[in-house]
Amino acid sequence: MARVQNPTTTTLGYALFATRWLQAPLYFGLVAAQGVYVYKFFKELWTLILMCVSGHATETYVMLAVLKLVDVVMIANLLIMVIVGGYETFVSRIGLQGHRDQPEWLSHVNSNVLKVKLATAIVGISSVHLLQMFVDVHHTSRHALLWGTVIHMAFIASAAILAYMSGPMVAHTDRGHADRAPAAPAQAPDLGSRQRTEPESERPPAAAVPPQPDPDADAEARIRAAGFPARKVLEEFDQQHPRAFDREALARLGKADFVDARRNVVFVGPPGTGKTHLAVALGVRACQAGHRVLFATAAEWAARLSDARAAGRLDAELAALDDHPLLIVDEVGYTPCDAATAGLFFQLVAHRYERASLILTSDRPLGRWDEVFGPSAPALTDRLAHHAEIVRLDGDSYRTRRATSAWAD
């Protein structure tokens, strides 16, 4: 039964939520403070240059002056973290979609991560201050040295406690995501049991992929369970290769909000333009955002659903897949579908319609999917595209280009 919301309560909630904009002037004030530190940096630098040119600068003076400059820069970096991360977390999205300098962490920043970053930055600044005191130890009292060391250790302890607490907080968030899904677990597709070719992106052997450290062990477990052929990230995608490519759409999808909104994503383009790379990279982002994901090719999904239908448990299999908010179907159209297989794909799309998300990659636009799914195509694409972001990639094969370049060399 749908829950009827009280209009008064809704209006009050929106009004309270709008009060977050009261913080916006505070961040602009920090921008002004950033300007003050820029002025202070160049003032200290100019003084150091004059002292060195005049020959009055001793080694200790130079070291202390350089430490002051480092101190100013570290405090300025701390201000940037508070301005950018705090505004993005507590006020509103900054909207840097498509900007080549967009920080990788900005797409999944949250208050918990921001606290740890700030605590780490404060420890670094405290370390510089303490080093200044020890360099100028002859002009520093024992009392000041003692309390400087105690305060520095307190900062270290606080940062360690925040870092330790961030783990249970993230785990609690992940359990919240899991509690909203049905309890029946879905068996991950056995991708290792089938030898298949890769028509989309270069897939090195799993052993050749270097492990990437991630503080969230639960996210790493979800990434391993997803069945990705190789770990790909958005930052590794060559955005200059496709001739036609919506970079703003990719930056928007990189926030993984489409999974919470139960929207679909369809990557369409010729072989070798990076569709699989992008699908896997978005799947990794979804895992890091707390969602369970399953990856397989269209042929593997067809085999899995066919086996379930033959065993008389197709409905149970579709319901079990609801435990994964995101399914990735790669290589749609690379192998022909008979009428029965097309019907299975229609049931999969129809079952997840407005309930969970799909990412599909295909070498042909949705208007030509009748070549793949026959009479089922109109009803299938209608449900798939209703709440979908369709990203077109146009260009030559990345692998062919690299092979040609290697031959020319």
Sheet with the most strands: spatial strand order: 2-3-4-1-5
Low-confidence stretches: 177-209, 404-409
Secondary structural class: alpha/beta
Radius of gyration: 27 Å
Q: Please report the total strand number as a whole number.
A: 5
Compute the separation of the termini in Å: 66 Å
Helix content: 55-70%
| Overall 3D shape | elongated
The fraction of residues assigned to DSSP E strands is 5-15%
Mean pLDDT: 80
**Order of SSEs:** HHHHHHHHEHEHHEHEHHEH
Tell me the number of helical segments per DSSP (H or I, 4 or more residues long). 15
Largest sheet: 5 strands, parallel
Write the layout of secondary structure elements.
Elements (H helix, E strand, L loop, with lengths): L6 H12 L5 H31 L4 H32 L20 H25 L6 H38 L37 H9 L21 H7 L3 H4 L3 E5 L6 H14 L4 E5 H13 L3 H8 L4 E7 L6 H14 L4 E6 L7 H4 L3 H10 L1 E5 L5 H11 L1
Parallel strand pairs: 1-4, 1-5, 2-3, 3-4
Helix pairs in contact: 2-3, 3-4, 4-5, 6-9, 10-11, 12-14
